[in-house]
Amino acid sequence: MRQYSPDLTPGWKKSRPVPEVPAEPGLVVEEPGSGFCGAVIRCEAGTVTLEDRFGKHRVFPLEPRGFLLEGRAVTLVRPAAGPVRPTRTASGSVAVPGARARVARAGRIYVEGRHDAELVEKVWGDDLRVEGVVVEYLEGVDDLPAIVEEFGPGPDARLGVLVDHLVPGSKESRIAEAVTSEHALVVGHPYIDVWEAVKPSSLGIGAWPRVPRGQDWKTGVCRALGWPENTGAAWQHVLGRVRSYKDLEPELLGRVEELIDFVTEPA
To answer: Domain named DUF3097: which ranges (predicted)?
Structure first.
């Protein structure tokens, strides 16, 4: 008759001494019982909340030897009280406490105008500094072919361009097709101006107004919404209501993320 060992405790929970590790936001660990791997986003009395790369949350008890850190068993403990640090950047990425800006890459991201650049900076600025990506603006796309030729994109200097109102058959789409190559990527959103990429709900309006063709779009928006016809002040109001990626439309979010991935892809 077979004899079974009475000790059925999993190997990762045996009583060998293991280090205690503060469950700081952003720490990536695995819960071996379920195989769930994610970053710490919250640690409360007796529990820790992890978020995996798909955005799924799971709550686990803070048990001795309850997690694996880089393949080794650890005991997570509640961090010592101190200044509360954000766990996420405005783009939704896991924040890297104390991260320094990387030396700028040769690659660049170009956007059409100053407002586009300010919006990208507000939401993705932390990510761009960590990656060493510089954003510049063009003041329109008419000169884009000459700018791309002068830049000379290559394997170690990729160029990404974000264009407003990139819809089939438009002038912008024809220019984009002319300059796109293995090392230069032009993408765009369908909005007439980047203002429209801010969700109306974030501004407390029902929808962005339709502006008759031939009328300056930004001025027309101000008139329709009853705002003073000062487009600079209006833009500062719009930008001030953007706090994170949640205030932006998916059509812009996806394109900016695509450009960041493109220019940071290893040669």
So the answer is: 20-79, 108-265
Query: Which neighbouring-strand residues pair with 184?
Result: 159, 181
**What's the pLDDT tens digit per position in 81-110?**
655 455 667 766 656 555 555 566 788 999
Q: Using a CB cutoff of 8 Å and minimum separation of 24, what contacts does 142-149 make?
A: 142/175, 144/110, 144/175, 144/179, 144/186, 145/175, 145/178, 145/179, 147/110, 148/179, 148/184
Joined tokens for residue 79? 């961090």
Q: In the numeric block, which tokens belong to residue 170?
A: 């438009």
- Per-residue pLDDT band for 4 (boundaries 50, 70, 90) equals very low
Q: How does 231-242 read in b/e, with b if 16+ C-beta sit within 10 Å?
A: beebbeebbeeb
Rounded Cα gap, residues 221 and 224, in angstroms: 5
Which neighbouring-strand residues pair with 76?
Answer: 21
Helix (H) / strand (E) containing 203: helix 200-203
The per-residue pLDDT for range 152-210, each reduced to its tens digit, is 999 999 999 999 988 888 888 898 888 899 999 999 999 999 999 999 999 999 999 99
Phi then psi for 22, rounded to 5 degrees?
A: -60, 135
Cβ contact 40:21 at 8 Å:
no
